[in-house]
Amino acid sequence: MNLFNILFYSIALLIVVSTGLAVTRRNLVHAVIYLIMSFFGSAFVFYLFGAPFLAALMVIVYAGAIMILFLFIIMMLRVETPEEQLFPARQMWPAVAVAAGYLVVGALLAAHDPAAGAVLGPAQTEPAVFGAYVFRNTWLAVEVTSLLLLVALIGALFIGKRPTHESEE
Amino acid sequence: MTYPAAADLTLTAAIAATALPLAAFAVILLLTRGFPRLSAALSIAAISVALVCAGLLLVRHGHLETPLEYSTLWMAGGDIVVRVGFLIDPLSLLMLMIVAVICFLVQVYSLGYMAGDPGFARYYAFMSLFAWAMMNLTLAASLLQLYIFWELVGLSSYLLIGFWYEKFSASEAGKKAFVMTRLGDVAFFIGILLVLLNFGNLSILELNSPRAGFLPPAVVTVSALLIFGGIVGKSAQFPLLTWLPDAMEGPTPVSALLHSATMVAAGVYLLARLFPFFSMSPAALQVCLAVGAVSMLLSATMAMVSRDIKQVWAYSTISQLGLMIMGLAAGDYVAGVFHLTTHAGFKALLFLCAGVFIHACGGNDMFEIGRRGARHLKIPMICMIIAAAALSGVPPLSGFFSKELILAALAGRPSPIWLAAGLLGAFLTTYYTFRLIFIILFPRGEAQAKDAHADGHNSEAGYRVMAAPLIVLAAVTGVLGFGGHALGRFLLQGFPGPVPGAGHPTWLPFAALGATAAAVGLAWFEFGRRGADQVGFVERVEPLRELFRRRWYIDDAYRWLLDHVLYRVFSAFCAKNDQKVIDGAVDGLGGSMAAAGRILAVLHTGSVQFRLLVVSVVLILLGLYYFVYPLN
Amino acid sequence: MAGIPFGHVLALSGILVALGVACATARRNLIMILLGVEIMLNGASIAFAAAALRWQQLEGQAFVLFIIAIAAAEVSVGLALIVHLYHRTGSLDPEKFNMLK
Predict the structure, then answer these.
(1) DSSP labels for chain C?
(2) If one looks up domain A3-82+123-168 in CATH, what number appears?
(3) ipTM of the complex as predicted
């Protein structure tokens, strides 16, 4: 057990626990806070996997921007959800069964897949190398994504407008 | 097939002859229905041009060494090739001429007969339709093409029999004719398919060529018999003979054209057309011979007790068609075709004369016609006697020569029974013919002589229009018989089949003449002589009379079959099948769909998340499938 | 031993995706549905990053980059929709939005 392994497993535990807590919180603000913790953990995992640039992006964009946006919206809407009910059991049990099957098969895969046995060691990708790769090999996807972001911006602006009197009825 | 230099004119004439009546039909139905005279003019113009073309073709190809075929590919699939086109050989030219002449004369005659009928334009439209179909049937180069027009002829027959569709019996008769001929046509069609499957070709020339001799004999026999089924239906032979007497519900010119001279003769024509093919199967010919003989005798007996003038001629038509089939089946191609030709002339004449009487006297009953003084209508009466004499085989009229040939052919058969049947048929034919003539000539009971004449005066122009075709036909009947040898030579040009031997026993004409004379004498004794009570010897025997009048109970047999077999068993089975199986299947399908929809509707709760859940479940299951499958 | 088996990373991302699905389908709150989607995307991202390391290919990391970008776009539109819906109905309960039923 070296440091790399210890770090990964403890971070993985942190991610799973905080995500589990986030999913089960009644209070939305708490849920978002736990999720931010989870995303910090993910960022650390990215760093462990040799992607410091992605780790930085994860912290800045996901934890820093997206989650704060969530928080902002939650506080703006001031939603109180004290009596949240779950689905009736009749509708839940197929989902539970499928989820169980999913987990079993996932475990089987993790145990039997030859690729799963490959060991990941510490590595490092320079952000400059990564940037050059992205803009050389996937420039079209970058352009498309930027266009998508522009569309999302316009769409969000349009949808987020307060409904006028005509559109309300 | 190489085309001679004159091919173009021939082809043009053939196309004109076969296409113009169709054009007339279309124009009348679409444009000129409201103008009866214009419609009649159009129809008659079309048939006149067709007549001229037919004459032209006949003159042009009077010395045709080999049959001409103009054909084009219609369908080809695998080994199967179907061509359409015109087949011009002596037989088709002769038949074309007969059809054109009779069509033309009958259409002219109809000007007088149908005058004032509300459906005048429609009548001429149907007549044109018939002319078109019949001419194409005559010139058809392949069996399939022939079959198509065969059915079209049946259609026009149906339309014309039921022409007075307001009359229940007429529309019933039309349906009966349609259904009964269709029974035969089904067999015919199966026969065509059999030929197509085994021979891969439907060309009539090919079928008649020696190449067809390589077919297995059983196939030839079966397909020939099936095709003969179509002939039985169309020519009203036993056992499908009862539709023809009922078809007399149609207008008399229609009976003259379709149901005596041309359409019903199409069956005999087909037999002659495929004569070399049929000759390859002695068994099939034997069946044809038997069917012809039975039909001839049965219908002759039916004619002996009928009081309806048109029905007598209808039975007589069946009988004569049977005789033609016997002649052909006995192996004498010329005799059958010759009798077809002469019969077309005199039988059309008989019907047209009957039409004049019916028109003048307003009824079909021969006693009534006699009482109304039909004998004062000189032209039709004389023409009718000429035609009747021809039908009976009195020399020197046309019927004598053609019947003589057939009897000679029958005499050539090993078994004497066929000749005996032929002679008996000739005797009966003469008997019922002269029975009718004497009844009309020498009416009993109170005479209402002036009636008919008065009627005749009322429509003098119509009478004259009707008389003209009669005179033409009577003249033809008088002289046609002497053309027998020429006709025989003409027909046998390039004929691929076996040429019949010409010799026949010298006593035969005398025997036939003796039978005719005896029959005339008997008829005179019972109906003609002063003081005769006009009751035939058959009519004295009650069961016999009943048997003949009920047409040997053939219709009753059909009725029984329909009621007990078709309706009780077959229809009931079909109805049950329909209700239980088909309805059940359809209802079940619909019901199960609805039930499945109801089950699936449970999934559609309207909840966004539930849909999301279903989507993820499906995705997970798909993932399981793709991952688990290689694992196992 | 040095390093982590690839299968363990996959198991981690699998658990995250399962949690995300559970969150998106079981919680009756529109915001939690969006959060669940984010969790799923996060799980996928971890798998991609691990795969990039496993096969020494930068495509995996590029994928993560695009996932983050798309998540940003999705969240902005999604939250705008949620705000809009809240203004219209005054509720965030997805069960209320069943007009298509």
Answers:
(1) --SEEHHHHHHHHHHHHHHHHHHHHH---HHHHHHHHHHHHHHHHHHHHHHHHHHT-THHHHHHHHHHHHHHHHHHHHHHHHHHHHHHHS---GGG--TT-
(2) 1.20.120.1200
(3) 0.88
